[in-house]
């Protein structure tokens, strides 16, 4: 029998990466994504998390938190427009918004892009990350921290939700992954979402990022979907591919109002975008409505899931398996 010759494209592990420093994320034991780190620009180790800003050849500056790619200068707007704009443009007249987490300032930037927004509260537990972002992530926040409509709070987002008397048209969860021992896993639970609903106005919308949208890492999203369905009348999944993540990322749109993303019209969303001070770079009406057209495979995975996330049964998750 003729011996099979190993093809040229099948590499030994020692020959995969050229010389130099690389930021490597193992998504599974058999899958990785690597950024060549040309320079370590800044670091910030706090009581809550470890952050670093590196310069890469492909994506420019990349923010890394707790070993995960948080966002890159090249494509951060893919993520932040996707998180913010479906709710911002589908709500009839949003005036007030709350951001849970969002340390880079880019989520607040997208909300404040609307001329109709009168006030935004942003609560992030890590003062040092906020200071780091204000100083080093100007390409992300673009001055949002200095917008007079923004009230920035360096405090536990969970305690704010528990104690505030304010009510909001829009609430966004832009929290870190629910890592065991991290600051955020308790804010991915049924009990927290029930309390959060009380600070939404009757026609309010809650949007959260909901983990990877790949078949290899699609456990968090169905569990969050099931959990939020216990709280809200309408819960809709949507996705956006984020190049620096090397995967699609998922989101959940939640409301008790009559607004349903599955019936939104692209032309109506484009008309609503006229209230924005600057045009969007990633989204338009057609891409927003298309984002909610979830493939059958993922809908089947969601229907098959029975998991509910509670304080007594939390779910821990990180994309990076390093």
Characterize the largest beta sheet: strand count, sense, and whether it forms a barrel. Answer: 7 strands, mixed
Q: Number of domains in the coordinates?
A: 2
Mean pLDDT: 94
How does the overall form come out from the CA principal axes? globular
How far apart lie the N and C ends?
A: 41 Å
Structure class: alpha/beta
CATH architecture descriptor name of the largest domain: 3-Layer(aba) Sandwich
Could you state the CATH homologous superfamily of the largest domain?
Vaccinia Virus protein VP39
Strand arrangement, major sheet:
8-7-6-9-10-12-11
> What count of helical segments does DSSP give?
10
Enumerate the spans where pLDDT stays under 50 for 5 or more consecutive residues. none
Describe it.
26% of the residues lie in helices and 29% in strands. The protein has 322 residues and is an alpha/beta fold. The chain folds into 2 domains: 20-72, Spermidine synthase, tetramerisation domain (Spermidine Synthase, Chain: A, domain 2, Roll); 76-304, Vaccinia Virus protein VP39 (Rossmann fold, 3-Layer(aba) Sandwich), CATH 3.40.50. Strands 8-7-6-9-10-12-11 form a 7-stranded mixed β-sheet, with helices on both faces. It has a 5-stranded antiparallel β-sheet with strand order 1-2-3-4-5. The longest helix is centred in the N-terminal third of the chain and has 15 residues, at 76-90. The chain is globular and about 70 Å long. The model has no long low-confidence stretch (mean pLDDT 94).
């Amino acid at each position: 029998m003729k011996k099979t010759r190993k093809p040229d494209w099948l590499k030994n592990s020692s020959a995969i990466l050229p010389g130099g420093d690389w930021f490597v994320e193992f998504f599974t034991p058999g899958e990785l994504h690597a950024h060549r780190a040309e320079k370590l620009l800044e670091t910030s180790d706090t009581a809550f998390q470890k952050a670093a800003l590196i310069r890469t050849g492909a994506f420019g500056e990349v923010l890394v938190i707790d070993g995960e790619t948080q966002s890159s200068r090249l494509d951060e707007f893919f993520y932040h427009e996707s998180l913010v704009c479906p709710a911002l443009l589908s709500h009839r007249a949003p005036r007030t918004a709350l951001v849970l987490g969002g340390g880079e300032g880019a989520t607040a930037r997208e909300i404040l892009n609307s001329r109709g927004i009168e006030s935004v509260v942003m609560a992030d537990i890590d003062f040092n990350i906020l200071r780091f972002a204000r100083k080093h992530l100007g390409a992300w926040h673009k001055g949002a921290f200095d917008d007079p409509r923004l009230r920035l709070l360096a405090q536990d987002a969970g305690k704010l939700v528990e104690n505030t008397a304010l009510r909001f048209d829009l609430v966004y969860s832009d929290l870190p992954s629910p890592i065991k021992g991290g600051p955020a896993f308790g804010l991915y639970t049924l009990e927290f979402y029930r309390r959060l609903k009380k600070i939404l106005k009757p026609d309010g919308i809650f949007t959260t990022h909901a983990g990877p949208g790949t078949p290899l890492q699609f456990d968090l999203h169905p569990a969050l979907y099931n959990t939020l369905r216990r709280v809200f009348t309408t819960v809709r999944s949507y996705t956006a591919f984020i190049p620096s993540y090397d995967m699609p990322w998922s989101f959940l749109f939640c409301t008790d109002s009559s607004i349903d993303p599955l019936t939104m019209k692209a032309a109506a969303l484009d008309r609503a975008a006229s209230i924005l001070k600057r045009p969007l770079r990633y989204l338009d009406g057609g891409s927003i409505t298309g984002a909610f057209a979830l493939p059958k495979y993922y809908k089947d995975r969601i229907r098959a899931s029975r998991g509910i996330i509670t304080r007594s049964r939390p779910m821990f998750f990180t994309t990076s398996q390093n």
